[in-house]
Amino acid sequence: MNIKQLMLTLAAGFALSASAQTQGYKDGVEYYKIGQFENAQEILQRTIDSPETNQAEALYYLGAIDLQNGNVKAAEEKFNKGLAIDPKAGLNYVGLGAVLLKNGDAKGASEQFKAALKAEKKAPVMVAIARTYYQADPVAYSKEYEKYMSDAYSKDKKSPDYYVMQGDKLRDEAIAEGADSDKIGESASAYTQAIYWDKATPEAYVKYSRLFAKANPQYAIEKLQELLQESPNSAMGQRELAERYYDNDQWTKAAQQYAEYIKNPNHFVQDEERYAVLLYFGEKYQESYDLAKQILAKNPNSVQMKRIIFLDLDKLGRKEEAKVAAEEFLAMPGVRFTANDYSSYAGILNELEEYEGEVAAWQKAIEVNPEKVELLKDLSAAYSQAGSRALKAQKAAGDDADAAAAAAEAHQAFVNAAAAYQKYIDADQYVTNDLVELASRYQNVAATSEPGSAEKADAINKAISTIDIVIERVPDNFIPYRNKARMVLVKNDNQPSEECVAVYGKVLELLDADPENRTKRADVYREAYSQTASYYINQKDTAGAKTWYEKMLEIDPDNQALRDYIDKLK
Questions:
Q1: Please, are residues 139 and 148 in contact by the beta-carbon 8 Å criterion?
Q2: What is the separation, in whole angstroms, between the first and last Cα of the chain?
Q3: CATH code at 499-570
Q4: Which of 342, 428, 419, 432 is nearest to 376 (CA)?
């Protein structure tokens, strides 16, 4: 999956609509019913004082979340507070019963459940009691569970709560039985039955969708689309659909759905961050940057948004700003940075031609992820570029001392480049073309070594032996032979030799196999003819040299300087 190649068609901007519709605290209830307690708690706390909130009901769910988190005292306080607001709120009695069950007082719990039914003798309350027994201990309280489920069914055969509870129990049993369990289908049927009797049962759609999220992703998506047809303002439904698109690699639709969901006042800040990331991968860099800045204004320590800021700036071509932003990001304390963080920073430094910093960035990337051996190729390339830059500085140097220093710097950079590439090759994950690159790295070491030194001899021998392996693997390709000819030139202090002429002869033999090469590969012909002619000049064989220069003139008939030179040869 290469998400960077995907194009997303997104909304042109981001803003919270003042007229956006919301379900208020009911979004929190929906999150609770699908088991997302942290999300439920955030929305319930956010909306508890809103005029449209049923505070007694909201307090029950907040208390139930406290109980899930082991905060029994806080849970009890909320249930009692809910009853103080509305003594007929049966669910709060159920909550108090759950507290007593947790404390081992089954008799006291039973009394609270009776009080709940006295306040509200309805199927949903009966199912809530059954669920409480099930959550406390499905084996020890199996009879109580069955009794209250039976009472609920007798009270209302169309109760969606009854069928959702059935589906949950069957789902748990299917998980316990393993992948081959038939109860997955039975669980799905129960959720379907809940939806059949009441289409406004959001948790049934979501739980059904999750059953098939991996086995049949498109089917799971369609079920959530059905939910939003019934409840278009459900923040949970909007978010779940966006997540399902995201998990199924439908990036365009995921981004579009996030754009819609973000308008809902009951969205979460972390989802804004997800949307900013999707905008980046959708190549909407300015929109991603603008949104990330908005999020950072509210949460200055957002690691993900600081990361996205420097990545967006890089893509927008604002390289200096990207460098500053990347350095600010990489200086954040307590953050576990990825190899990609450092490699992205290295790419920015490369474009700014700050090669020393780039080398250090690649080294950090390798340190973070030593298993990613291909990073060694990037480190080698950075060293090689540093060496090339130092060679340019050597040519431009104003005095001998500066030139010598630049030459030494270039040589050391090429040594490091070869060492890094050799380490990559030694990891044994290379292809033949990587050997071509390694040979060229050793050639650079030899070319910048002291003439006649053991270091030069060792480097050029490694270069030639490496390119010989390539030639053995692709004997009909002229390029490795041309590379070898150049290496032999370096071996002989850039003086053509008999060995060099022989290798160039092989280059010409392979090129001549295709007459079109005289046009397509004219530059290679000129190189081979020129070096061969130079060899004969050094041998004081003017006739031989003239023969090869005339071949060169056939390739380049408009080269008057060469024509004049040939005429002067004696």
A1: no
A2: 66
A3: 1.25.40
A4: 419
How far apart (Å, rounded) are the C-alpha atoms in residues 43 and 296? 21
> Residue 454: what residue type?
A
User: In the predicted model, is pLDDT for residue 20 greater than 60?
Assistant: no
Where would I find the H helices in 282-338? 285-298, 303-315, 319-330
pLDDT digits (tens, 9 = 90+) for 478-515: 999 999 999 999 999 999 999 999 999 999 999 999 99
Distance CA(93)–CA(373), nearest Å, equals: 61
Contact 70, 102 (CB under 8 A): no
Per-residue pLDDT at 292 = 95
Helix and strand numbers (H, E) in the chain are 30, 0
Cα gap 429→45, rounded to integer Å: 54
**Is 237:208 a contact under the CB 8 Å cutoff?**
no
> What is the structure's pLDDT at 26?
93
Query: Between residues 358 and 182, which one has the greater pLDDT?
Result: 358
Which ranges of 316-354 would DSSP assign to H, the alpha helix? 319-330, 339-351
CB atoms within 10 A of CB 302: 19
* 187 neighbors 171 (Cβ within 8 angstroms): yes
Contacts of 48 (CB under 8 A, 6+ apart): 25, 55, 58, 59, 62
| Crossing angle (nearest 10°) for helices 160-177 and 183-197 | 170
Pair 406, 393: CB distance under 8 Å: yes
Q: Judge residue 553's burial from the number of C-beta atoms within 10 Å of its C-beta, 0-12 exposed, 13-18 middle, 19 or more buried.
A: middle
State residue 21's pLDDT score: 58
SS3 content of the chain, % helix, strand, coil (to 5): 75, 0, 25
- The mean predicted confidence, pLDDT, of the chain is 91
Query: What is the Cα–Cα distance from 267 to 84, expressed in whole angstroms?
Result: 31
pLDDT for 255: 86
Instruction: Name the residue type at position 67.
Output: L
Taking the C-alpha atoms of residue 245 and residue 213, their distance in angstroms, rounded to an integer, is 10
Look at residue 200 and tell me whether its pLDDT is greater than 50. yes
| pLDDT of amino acid 203 | 95
Cβ contacts of 459 within 8 Å, gap of 6 or more: 418, 442, 443, 445, 446, 449
